Every structure is written in C-alpha cells, then in structure tokens.
Amino acid sequence: MRNRGPRPLSRPSDAMASGFWTRPRAGATSILPPSSKWNLTFEYRSASGRNASFAELANELVSLQVDVIVTRGTPAALAARSATATIPLVMAAAGDPVAIARSPNRPAQNMTGFGASARGVERKRVEILKEMLPNISRIAAITNLSNPSRQAEWWEVEAAARSLSVEPRVLDVRAATDIERSFDLARSWDATALVVGSDTLIQTNQSLVVQLAASHRLPAIYTFRDFVDAGGLVSYGASLSDLYRRAAGYVDKILMGVQPRDLPIEPGGDLELVVNTKTASVLGIAVPATMVSRAHVVE
Fold first, then answer.
1. Could you give the residue range(s) of every CATH 3.40.50.2300 domain in the chain?
2. Average pLDDT of span 194-203
3. Is residue 87 a contact partner of residue 63, using CB atoms and an 8 Å limit?
4. What is the pTM of this model?
C-alpha cells in the first residue's frame, strides 16, 4: 500500500519482487522468493496522492485477510496500524518508523520495517545546493506540513539554511492546486533554489513538480532519485530500491514464521546522491567535479 499513481508496480516495488515475478492476472503479481517455498500474490493498492484514502485501503486489505501488509510513507503506515493489530505490517519506507511502531503508550507488536530518512539528511540537502550554487541567497522549501514527518524536516532545512547565511521560506502545499501556486510564490519571492519534500501529494504530482521547476528555472533538490530520472536536477536520500529489497527479506522471514516484533526496526537506508548533468547544463549550472566524483549516479 503506497501513495503513488496507478502503475501496478514501480521500480522500487519491482526491486521487491526482483527477478521472481510473473503476471497471472491484472492487478496481481505472483512471485517465488528464492529462500522460501511460498507462492505469493501482491494485492496492490494506491491512494493516488489522497492521504485520506489510506484508511479505506487498509481496511480493504484487512478484509481480504492478506498475510502481510507492506506500506510506503508515514500516512500509509499509520493507517495500516489503525486497521489491524494482528496482520504483520512491514514499513518499506517511513519517516520515523520507530515512533510509529514503538509508541511507549501503545507499541504495535505486529509492526516492523525501515525508515526513509536519516538524521541530518535535510541539512545535507541544503549543503549540496550551496556547493552546487555558492551564490544562492534564498531557499524555498516546498512541502506538506500536514504530514507528521514533514514539519521536522522543515525545521532542519530552516536551521541549515540560516547556518549557511541563506534565507529560508516554507511553502506549504496541501492540495494539488497549491503546487503551481507555490512555484509562483517561490519565483515572486526571488528564491534561488528549492528543497522539495517527499510527501504523498508531491510524489503523486512528480511530473508537474519537475516541469514547474524547469519552466521557472529553479534549481531543486529532491529526496528520491525518481525525480531526477524524470528530469529533476539532483536528489539525495535513501535508495527506495534498496529499502524495498530489504522489506522483501522481512516479508520472507515473517512468512517463514518470524514475528514482526523480533525483526529490528532500522531508521535509515543507504543514502545516494544522484545528479542530472543534462538538467544542470540547461540551467547553466557547472556541477563541481568533486560532486560528480562522489555521486552514485550521474545522468
């Protein structure tokens, strides 16, 4: 259960099924994991950018009596936790998985998984922009502050920008109609760069966000590489493919009898720096050689 659009499987969830899947019928995927004897069927559900839909989707999966629910994102994980205390839940990528699953007041014994962020990563994104664009003076952060994970990220961006003598401003987007307006506000405010959040709404409107950044000629850094694959400038964050592969390992162990509470929650994944040199060239940006040399992928 995730927050993106209608594709049956994206690259990260392809990674989860990596190499073992066929398509026996529309909307489902059967796979045979190498370390088990289970034939698995994926029941895919997407909220298509509407966080309010997660509760209904989670309840639907519970009614189907699935064996495991895998989620991506904090809203999906919270909805799944509310829907069941018995079906194992694996968070493939959540903002703060420990806080979600191990609340002191009501720990979820059926929940485990992985985080999509790490301490200090927002500061690093601001530093990457400053390294790429030494003369930036104003950074706008486009994010959805109604998402519990995004408020803390904005505070980190704000502190990092001020420490580098860059003026920060947050542009709160809570509906698709807010996205274009936020870019107009960034331009009218004379923002010289953007930090783009990873909320459901923003991810669902990935193409629009990348197009607006290009049309406004605003250099932007993103959380995940799929934005760079779509033409964005640069990303720094967890590898979703790596997180999904690790989640698949947890699913396999759970199906073999391991309890979710016995699988450690890991708050962060491997971080990757991805640079799109073609986009940089269009924007007139000379990517520093030191950045190119340490980038995981240069496109």
1. 11-116+239-262, 121-238+271-298
2. 87
3. no
4. 0.79
